[in-house]
Write a structure and sequence with these properties.
Helix content is 74%, strand content 0%. It is mainly α. 39% of the residues are buried. The model has no long low-confidence stretch (mean pLDDT 91).
């Protein structure tokens, strides 16, 4: 299920903020933890992680612009990870409607972050897709 794939990607991208090297073994463990054994779900999670890693600087720049130049290093690390995933989906996954990416990101923020994070994430992403 893509929701589990997004959660797995969130865990990897979050960890990456604190450790420049996330080994393949670490990634495999996260994928297994979230039950990503089907090829399609596993591939989606791996593609999300790869897109964020490849385009991180560009995505961060877009996040800063959409958050009214609020520097990314001041954004809660969980929220930043969620925003990176959603931005990667919006920019590089044409088969996913942007509203789905925004909705999924808000759901991740409600589950993994602070009480106000879902509104913050939703606002930043709405600014991106309405531009």
């Amino acid at each position: 299920m893509r929701s589990n794939a997004r959660e797995a990607a969130l865990n990897i991208i979050f960890a990456r903020q604190f450790n420049d090297e996330c080994t393949d073994g670490f990634k495999k463990g996260v994928y297994k933890k979230f039950g990503l054994e089907k090829d399609e779900d596993l591939l989606f999670a791996a593609d999300l992680v790869a897109a964020v890693e490849e385009h991180r600087e560009e995505l961060i720049s877009k996040i800063e612009e959409a958050s009214h130049h609020y520097l990314a290093n001041r954004i809660n690390p969980t929220d930043k990870s969620i925003l990176l995933i959603a931005m990667a989906e919006i920019c590089y996954f044409d088969d996913i409607p942007p509203v789905v990416s925004v909705s999924e990101a808000a759901g991740l923020a409600r589950k993994y972050s602070s009480e106000t994070s879902a509104d913050f994430v939703n606002g930043v992403l709405a600014g991106v897709i309405n531009k």
